[in-house]
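User: I'm new to structure prediction. If I give you an amino acid sequence, what do you actually give back? Let's try with this one:
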Amino acid sequence: ILSKVMTNSNQPIRVLVTGGTGAIGPVLVRRLVQANYQVRVLVRQPPRPGRLPPVVDLVAGDITDPASLEPAMAGVDQVFHLADRQQLTDPSAQEIADYEQVNLTGTGRVVEAALLAGVSRLVFFSTIAVYGPGDGQTVFTEASLPNPQSLYAQTKYRAESVVLSARRNGPEPSLGVVLRLAAVYGTGIKGNYARLVTALQKHQFLPVGSGHNRRTLIYEHDAVEAALLAAESPQAAGQIYNVTDGQTPTFNQIITAICHGLGHNPPRWHLPEEPMRVLVNLVEQGCHRLGRPAPIGHHTLDTLLEDVAVSSDKLQEELGFNPMFDLMTGWGLRLPNWKKAPG
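Assistant: Good question. You get back a string of structure tokens that encode the predicted 3D arrangement of the chain. For your 343 residues, that looks like this:
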């Protein structure tokens, strides 16, 4: 990648990053700066000091606002589109509208602005959640039929079509490439894995069920390297790639890796699945009658027990992607200084 960052006019490749202050955005931005790209980041509000390198060009705007996208896209060669509305459980009517506005309408406006600006490549960050739950045996590939269940996955899947349908003039008519990322962990870890790490650190977590359900992850630095390959590889245009670390570990193996990084032993006991489902259902019903949120709901339990196994062979074979971080290495790098789940 480092040898490809100059345009034909011998000028640095100019890139725009949306969502550059999110979970993995800063990792991507720092890598682009390191590789001598000229980086511009679209931000709704100024990032906190030190969040992004000082050489980055910050442009105020919003992906849903065409007027702010036009100057942000000016002179840009490539776009990395990360900005989205993240996963929520039981979203309200207003939150559902926000999903549509940001994940779908916003992506469409980014694509339109990129086409008008003559951008050569748009890398869209999607999710393996578009495949839906696994059956304990199937390993999903890019040829698998998507079955998105959550509103987040549904809007990301629909946004993929917007990206892949974009056409421009030139030898590579397809503007976009879609990266379906596995669960990303690293310095910006948030959500379920942040809560899992915190609970394991405090010895407050017991696995439910056998723990043999499979998961698919990717360390943030590997995810970023995949994005750079997708941006620079001519054969990536118009393609979909799963981005994983090449493994399908069980939930037990993930817990073991996290505990190894934290420096203590994994939990010795597992809670039985069926009695836990009955208990969670009773707790939800009781809290509903009292008008209070349940401390744990069936959505959380389903997440703990879901099986998702996804292959990234296509990315490795076509673009030469070589993940550098396995489960033990990635969690070992992230967790020695873990204090609490990031906000």
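You can read the tokens as a compact description of the fold. Here is one thing that stands out. The beta strands are 14-18, 38-43, 57-60, 78-81, 121-127, 176-181, 183-185, 217-219, 240-243.
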